[in-house]
Amino acid sequence: MASSAHSYVDPEKPAPYAGSTEKDARSKDFSHDPELLAGELQDFEELEVFRKDGEVDFRTVSWPRATVIFLKIIFATGVLSIPTAMVSLGAVGGALIVIAWGVMNTYTAVIQGDFRNKHAGCHSIADMAMQVGGVWVREIVGFLFVIAYVLCTGSGIVGVTVGLNALSHHAACTVWWGLIATIVVALAASVRKFQQIGWLTWAGFLSIFAAVMIVTIAVTFRDRPAAAPITGDYDLGYYVVPSGVSFAAGVVASSNIFVSSAATSAFLPVISEMRNPREYRKALYVCMGLVTAAYLSVSLVVYRWCGKWVASPSLGSAGQTVKMIAYGIGLIGLVVSACIYLHVAAKYLFVRILRNSRHLQKNTITHWSTWLGLTFGLAFLSFILAEAIPIFNYLLALTGSLCFAPIAIALPGWLWLHDHMHFRKGSSGQQMAFWFHAAFIPLGAFFFVAGTYGVVQEIIAAYADGQIGSAFSCADNSGST
């Protein structure tokens, strides 16, 4: 059994390198490939947060299983909001932004994974922030990380309430549906290991993918969108390039697309539970390639046939019958999405609290009470936020601008600069690379400020226009009654 000393690695301490120092390792021309550099680590396994010889072995995830977990993290609630974003951005603008954010989020995920494998004591994005900015930066990033996935969990809960209202024709108060959804999500998320929730990720991904495909195909068989006037002329609202879109609406739409693939910081705790963390890139590329292709095709088809009449979430865009079929199939996926987001947030706090303690990988009362207390406590917080901001796309957009802009754009740029500071005075190509990555920081700051402003303005307008009745409202949010 591992001792407590072996179960903890201080993220402030640099990794030991075979030979001598990190500088020596770089002199061997490994700096261009962090995976090769990681291979030079002396006793790489000693640096991992979870030891394979602990009483509770968390290191059980293969890279194919990691791929499925990544797919369920990314291909989740985000895909249901992208067609709505197209209404503000148009077909061309929306498609370009889907591709751009897909590439950007993939690359920043590569940076995060490489940094994590080079500094293997890092379990989360907050540990990485500690490496580059110290304690205060770690606490800020850790707070944003938890809030991000609590908000994502809340969006999943909202999606589940919409589905339950659609399936039951609003047979109960929406708040009660939300409470039931929260309890189910908390119970599912309380399973401790990613490996153990592997079958849930398969079921969740397949169910939400099938539901989205059903709606995507079904909208092409309708004479007019389900939400459009039943008779007479109507404006489809489909534009290749729209005009007259407000800044706030454009930022909210872009934030919705950004957040649909920005949750890559949730990959990092999964890497810590992989059998071989250095196979991370395989899972990442497969996941992000499939997700970006699916987002692009689904959003363009649904927007082309529904125009401005697309529903939010988009599963309700093909009429009541198809809506009930889609939610009946996709409900598992919505629950699993919220479950994984909650699990990620709880696992971060769990490791933070029990790290450097025998309780981290030992079945003790402290171990279980901490874990269950975190999952159910964060689930309750997600429920409160879901009821306070009950419009699906606004909740996601707020998550993107307020939380993911700093930790998925700005921070990865800082991480890269930390490991490549010598590029600043290197060759012209190295200097260009240095300043290219330095630009990530102001870009993240821009979306943090502008995006949050835009979302807040849209939420205020939604309350004023009656789109949001009130917090903790019993009203039907599925449009089924």
From TrEMBL:
Topology class, membrane: Multi-pass membrane protein
Entry keyword Ligase: no
Family: Belongs to the amino acid/polyamine transporter 2 family.
One GO MF term attached to the UniProt entry: L-amino acid transmembrane transporter activity
Source organism of this protein record: Zymoseptoria tritici (strain CBS 115943 / IPO323) (Speckled leaf blotch fungus)
Bilayer-crossing regions: 68-86, 92-110, 140-162, 174-192, 199-221, 241-271, 283-305, 325-344, 365-385, 391-411, 432-456
Keyword terms: Membrane, Transmembrane, Transmembrane helix
One cellular component term from this protein's GO annotations in UniProt: membrane
Domain of life per record: Eukaryota
Residue ranges annotated for the Amino acid transporter transmembrane domain, each copy included: 60-456
Protein's UniProt name: Amino acid transporter transmembrane domain-containing protein
Localization of this protein: Membrane
Region annotated Disordered, chain positions: 1-29
